[in-house]
Amino acid sequence: MMESNHIIELRNITKSFPDKVVLDDVSLSVKKGEFLTILGPSGCGKTTLLRLLAGFNSATEGEILIGGEVMTGVPPHLRPVNTVFQRYALFPNYNVYDNIAFGLKLQKVDKREIEQRVKRALKMVGMTDYEHRDVQSLSGGQQQRVAIARAIVNRPQVLLLDEPLAALDLKMRKDMQMELKEMHRTLGITFVYVTHDQEEALTLSDTIVVMNEGKIQQIGSPTDIYNEPCNAFVADFIGESNILNATMVRDRLVRFMDKEFECIDEGFGENVPVDVVIRPEDVYIIRNAEAAMFHGVVRSCIFKGVHYEMFVDTPDGYEIQIQDYNCFEPGQEVGMLIKPADIHVMAKERTENHVEGTMVDATHVEILGEQFECQEVADIESGAAVDVAFDFSAVELTDDPDDGVSWGTIRFILYKGDRYHLTVRTDEGESIYVDTHDVWEDLDEVGIKIAPSALRVVRRAEK
Amino acid sequence: MRNLVKFFSRRRSWSLPYVLFMAVFIVVPLVLIMLYAFQSKDGGFSLENFERFVNQPEAANTFIYSIGIALITTIICLVLGYPAAYILSRLKPSTATLVVMLFILPMWINVLVRTLATVALFDFLSLPLGEGALIFGMVYNFLPFMIYPIYNVLQKMDHSLIEAAEDLGATPRQVFTRVVFPLSMPGIVSGIMMVFMPTISTFAIAELLTMNNIKLFGTTIQENINNGMWHYGAALSLIMLIIIGITSLFTDSSEEGANEGGLL
Fold first, then answer.
1. Fold classification of B62-260 (topology level)
2. Which of A197, B22, B142, B215 qualifies as a FRET site for B203, CA 20 to 30 Å off?
3. How far apart are CA A319 and CA A310, in angstroms?
4. Mutate which of B156, B167, B176, B188 to test chain A, going by most A C-beta atoms within 10 A?
5. Contact (CB, 8 A) for B41 and B188
6. Where are the domains of chain B?
7. What ipTM goes with this model?
8. How do the pLDDT tens digits run along chain B, 264 residues long?
9. From CA B28, how far away is CA B39, in angstroms rounded?
């Protein structure tokens, strides 16, 4: 029926609250003994996913299997999982020993065994001799260690960790990361770890699940996710990157910044629009501008400890981020080289906006909850369902939401070297994508205008 | 003149009215009670008032009875108040505020008016006045003082503690007995103090709801003072103050931070 090496199976999980959908048809398998990290920006649904596993919330649709058993309707206290909470959630009325022994006492474990197991758990988290301390007298790091000990002492099949290191300072966080990794190796149980910190995810995990807006964007090993991001969101969220619009000329040849570059990707077809990702450390910067593949002028150079971070402007208006051990002074003319293997080509998720609408009259169409003017469409009667397409650059955003025909909120900003690619969520919950040279900020409220000539209206095909 | 300006500009001087108030209305009366309690009728120092309390069973019996009634009232308030507070703390914040308001609303009306209304209610239902009516009236009057501090503590409790307990395998009942209830102790202690202490010394409620048939200690003190027995009345007041003082010391040490859930 199901593979025994999968300890957790999520099948088409949807979770919606009255006002929004938090998880949208998420399916995921976790292998036994794996260190799996769910990574995403705040509000992407990662904590909700963890709470569904722990049983604090129930899914609107879909089912969860843990250890091969369907967990629908199973309350938290009967699930073979334990949770480490972000804010520790230690019981202030018990001391360290009693906090850790809490679960074992409920299971009516023999007193002497409880003592042994608590001591072993304390040793594991490096807190020997703290048994009788009041939990509120401990530092944040110590409290988190006790919280981890309290969870692992019950020997759960799965340990759920909800941003356990988020409240700790940088140094402590690094130490704890190493200890968690070590603990995972020693215990051999499955860890499901939730974080918004991409570096933490890359350091700790066997598998990373990148989430955004309630959907899984990519599942893969840290190196896969870093080296072969499957879309622009993942590339932008994991590490620094230059993301550019490009055209796949043919196999192993891609055109961007008005130049053709050799690459190693195949199978996209000929003359297909794609995105390319180039990591800042993969751009070689040299003094001799003649031998370079392309050239530019250094705009800024900042020392970052190990390397320098430079922004270089090209003559055709692109901005390239580069990391190099050598410093090039601002204003200096430089040349740049990119190795074919370092150009990562990604299929574009979309090349234009598509929305569903209704014809109002010959020159108006209702989309995004409002009436937009369009070019005269003679052959579609009023009230007919239509599909409307328009280019990213055809959308004009205005500061004043009342000035636009419709309005929305900026949800995601992607810099593409020479322009910004914005995701705008309208009040009706539809997303449209906008290319612009203007600088906007996340969560800005904007008015949306679209040039009438840019709207391409076609009758919606009957299903 | 300059000294006067200097005097009024010092912040310490501003507290003078309060110091005076406390001296006149709190310290002096206490001192007077002490003095009267240890004086015989002719004005000399004596312990005869206390001897009288110990030797005359009437006052001592009333005293013990009063404590009994106060205990019963407190226990009933706790038994009724805790579930109410628990349910309240589970409501949506907006609903909870409204319901708490409804609980507190009667407190805006004077206790005598409410008690007279209770008498009228018992008459209307042709229920006998007496011990039962007394306890009913006391519980009715003091229940909000039990509910509010407990509600306050429960409502502020970190919900992740409850989730942590569930996660570690506690059934809903175990979550309550091992986490929620122990953590609400400060509220319970506050509630007990807010109910037990004033109930020992009530007299108006007792007079009205028992047609003067049952005497509480408060009544005894009031009778003595009304009848000009200042010295004996003062001694009885002092005994009551000491008992209340002892209970508050006891509750303070039993639970640190008891004021956390305080109503005031």
1. MetI-like fold (1.10.3720)
2. B22
3. 10
4. B167
5. no
6. 62-260
7. 0.77
8. 778 788 777 777 888 889 999 999 999 999 998 888 888 877 778 888 888 888 888 888 888 888 899 999 999 999 999 999 999 998 888 888 888 888 888 888 888 898 899 899 999 998 888 888 999 999 998 999 999 999 999 999 999 999 999 999 999 999 999 999 999 999 999 999 889 888 887 888 888 888 888 888 888 888 888 888 888 888 888 988 888 888 777 766 554 443 444 443
9. 16
